[in-house]
Each structure stands twice: as C-alpha cells, then as structure tokens.
TrEMBL record:
Record-annotated active site: 216, 269
Catalytic activity: 2 5-aminolevulinate = porphobilinogen + 2 H2O + H(+)
Binding partners and assembly: Homooctamer.
A Gene Ontology BP annotation from the UniProt entry: protoporphyrinogen IX biosynthetic process
Lineage: Bacteria, Bacillati, Actinomycetota, Actinomycetes, Geodermatophilales
Protein's recorded name: Delta-aminolevulinic acid dehydratase
A GO CC term assigned to this protein in UniProt: cytosol
SMART domains the UniProt entry points to: ALAD
C-alpha cells in the first residue's frame, strides 16, 4: 500500500506498525495465530506394577502413572478441555519381540480400556504404536544378526524392517480393540502405515484413523523420554531408522509416502528445532498436521525456568504459539493441561 495515513501508510515516510500493538485488546484482535486448549494433546506414561506415581527426574512435574492415577489425570485433562491424550505403556516384563505391546492384558491396553470406559469419546485417546518400551533390547523393531556386508547397529545386528511390520499390525489391532480412537505409529519402519491400515481394515476397524509420525528425526531431544518410558536402546542408536537431522526434503517424501499408504494425519517430531519442517509439511499437505514438543524441549525450558532464567509461563506459551504459527494444527506437549488452564 502506498501513501496516506492507511495501515502501512504515513505522511512522514515511514509505516506505523505500532498502531495495532498499542493495547492488549488490539493485539488480541489482530493476532494471526490462536492457541486453544483443544489444540493440545498430553503424552502420558502408565507403568505396570507400581502403587504410587513415580516422578521422572529429568522431567519435573511429569510422572509414570499407575492405572488409577492415570484415570484421575485423564479426568483433569478432560476438564481442562484439551484435545486428547497419547498413551505410552511400560510393562514389567520385556522380551525380544515386545509381547506386552499387543497382549490384551498388557499395561497400555488395560489403561486404554479403562480410559475409554471412563471417558467414552470425551477425549481423543491416541495409542503410540512402537516396540521400544516393550522390547528388552530397547529398539523400535525386531532385531536380527546382520547379514554379510551389512553393517548394523552395534556392528552385529540390524533392526529388521519387514518382520517388524507384522508385529506393528498385531499391536494396532490390540490397541484398537482396547479402545484407542487413533493409532499413532512412531517406529519409523518403511511400510508401517500400509501394514497397519491393512491390519485395521481386516479386523473391522476401517473407521480407526492413523496419525503417522511421518517425519520423526533421530534426535538428542528424546533423552528424558527414555527415562520416562524406560526404552533406551541397549546398544547402538536409532539412526538407521529415524531421520537424519540435516535432511529436509526427505521429510516431504516420508509424509507423501505415509499419506499414499493411508495415513489420515501426519506428525513432525521434535517440534521447536524443526519448525522449518513443520512449515514445509503444512504447506505441502491438506491433512491435519501435528507437531510433538518432545521431552528434551520440555526439560530444557523447565531447567531454565527453575533457575529463574526465563519466565516459565510466558516462554511455554511462546513455544506453543510458535509451533502453531509454523503450521501445526495440533501440538503434543507435556504442558498440555497446564497451558489449557492458562488459556481459559
Ligand atoms: C518411541 C517414541 C519416542 C518418543 C515418542 N515415541 C522415543 C524415541 O524414538 O526414542 C519421544 C518422545 C519424547 O521425547 O518426548 N518410538
């Protein structure tokens, strides 16, 4: 726009951007991005065989729940008006194939059943679908000795893609049967969305949507989660299946592939260090986009706030707003319930 005293115009040769910033009401009216409780999803951990919730030292304020404390937390989450929960289970017994992930009496499936019975459809119940919390080796898939010439994790083994898909298919059915509204595969095996879609359809769960962790990076920001979910790899790391942080175009390929395989919605993870990816994915697709503000993002801000180095509430809301501004419709965040209360 040119000339006059209009929005950008001026009689003195410069624009007066301050006009629309001068009162809280004007700023509220002209805010381009809004953050609402319904945009937020709370990740929760439920652990088998404990009587009291267990604090997670690297995530102050976050606990490993008992089934009972989780039920209470879920009611509070519903009252706060958040969009949903995503569940992670920690079984007492782990084995090579992660049997407890699809056992009907496995901790996560029991918790899903209880929450669905308690809350019905009041909150969206998402099930994280992975094996790393359930395997004794801590990898997200089945492991197998490396074949000649293949240099695998730890030198001697590889995470074996295709046999893992059969496990994911079984876990998806178990989670849907337990009452999950949404299945969210996070293991980064190739073909996982197609395998899960086929399994769900074959078990009469055609209506159960898949939220694909489509662009999930091999990130140092998952550190505290591995204490929370007790799923640290016992050898090697996840770099042979999760995405390499320098890559951006590849995220668009992963997203396109997951959509072609039948994903209903896609996720980028972590969030704050990958806002460029969130923005590019949101531009590229016309399905709902989520971003996961992960454990390390939570821990670093909590640590700074505990030292008095940042204003906690202000910084938390700023990060959530930034993730929405980049293009994510939904934010998975450990601050979901607290932020929802601030926003009301
Ligand atoms: C399991 C999974 C992880 C997270 C979510 N699902 C850990 C990992 O991939 O190592 C991380 C969440 C967080 O850090 O908050 N595959």
């Amino acid at each position: 726009m040119t000339g006059g005293a209009g929005a950008g115009g001026t009689s003195r040769g410069f624009a007066r951007g301050r006009r629309l910033r001068s009162t809280p009401a004007l700023r509220r009216l002209t805010a381009q991005t809004r953050l609402a409780p319904a945009d937020l999803v709370l990740p929760v951990f439920v652990k088998e065989g404990i009587d009291e919730p267990q604090p997670i030292s690297s995530m102050p304020g976050v606990v490993q729940h008992t089934t009972e404390s989780l039920r209470k937390a879920a009611h509070e989450a519903a009252e706060a008006g958040i969009g949903g929960l995503i569940l992670f289970g920690i079984p007492s017994e782990k084995d090579a194939v992660g049997s407890q992930a699809d056992a009907a009496d496995g901790i996560v499936n029991v918790a899903l059943q209880q929450l669905r019975a308690d809350l019905g459809d009041e909150l969206v119940l998402m099930a994280d679908l992975c094996l790393c919390e359930y395997t004794d080796h801590g990898h997200c898939g089945l492991i197998t000795p490396a074949k000649g010439g293949v240099r695998g994790q730890g030198g001697a083994v590889v995470v074996d893609n295709d046999p893992t898909l059969d496990r994911y298919a079984a876990v998806a059915i178990a989670q849907a049967q337990a009452g999950a509204h949404v299945i969210a595969p996070s293991g980064m095996m190739d073909g996982q969305v197609a395998a899960i879609r086929r399994a769900l359809d074959g078990a009469a769960f055609q209506e159960t949507p898949i939220l694909a962790y489509a662009a999930k990076y091999a990130s140092g920001f998952y550190g505290p989660f591995r204490e929370a979910a007790e799923g640290a790899p016992q050898f090697g790391d996840r770099s042979t299946y999760q995405m390499d942080p320098p890559n951006a175009d590849e995220a668009l390929r992963e997203v396109a592939q997951d959509l072609a395989e039948g994903a209903d919605a896609v996720m980028v993870k972590p969030a704050l260090p990958y806002l460029d990816i969130v923005a590019r994915v949101a531009d590229a697709v016309d399905v709902p986009v989520s971003a996961y503000q992960v454990s390390g993002e939570y821990a670093m801000l909590e640590a700074a706030a505990a030292n008095g180095w940042v204003d906690r509430q202000r910084a938390v809301l700023e990060t959530l707003t930034a993730i929405r501004r980049a293009g994510a419709g939904t934010v998975l965040t450990y601050w979901a319930v607290e932020a929802a209360r601030w926003l009301r």
